[in-house]
Design a protein that fits this description.
Layout: H1 2-16, H2 25-35, H3 39-44, H4 53-65, H5 77-83, H6 90-102, H7 112-118
Helix pairs in contact: 2-4
Pfam families: PBP_GOBP (PF01395)
GO molecular function, one term: odorant binding
Signal peptide: 1-21
Length: 123
């Protein structure tokens, strides 16, 4: 269940960032079109369902277009730290971004789950 909450949290946070890398509704629409994400799939991102390949690719697209994954698949941790606030717990924040920094790269859609898993870490 924590994993599904983390997915919803990641999607929400990607939409709430406040920098140049902001994930706008336009970016979300572009990613839906690029990944052929259906309206049903879009709704189930916030439900307790497993991630299909399409959903993984959609989330990867959001991270890329948001400026959190570089063209080479490298995670841009500093951009995430600037924009995505996990919560007020500094110990948890350290663990989450330590985990994110250990994800070597997200070159394919399946690897995005490693990134999502970082947001499920407890303090």
């Amino acid at each position: 269940m924590w994993k599904y909450l983390a997915i919803s949290l990641v999607i929400t946070l990607l939409g709430l960032t406040a920098s140049e890398g902001r994930v706008t509704e336009e970016v979300k629409q572009q990613c839906r079109e690029e990944t052929d994400l259906t309206e049903e799939d879009s709704r189930s991102l916030k439900a307790n369902e497993a991630l299909s390949q399409t959903k993984k690719c959609y989330i990867k697209c959001l991270f890329e277009k948001g400026g959190y994954i570089g063209a080479d698949g490298k995670i841009l941790v500093e951009a995430m730290k600037k924009d995505i606030i996990v919560d007020g717990n500094n110990v948890r924040l350290e663990k989450v971004y330590g985990c994110v920094g250990n994800v070597e790269s997200v070159k394919d859609c399946d690897k995005v789950t490693e990134l999502i898993d970082c947001f499920t870490l407890k303090s």
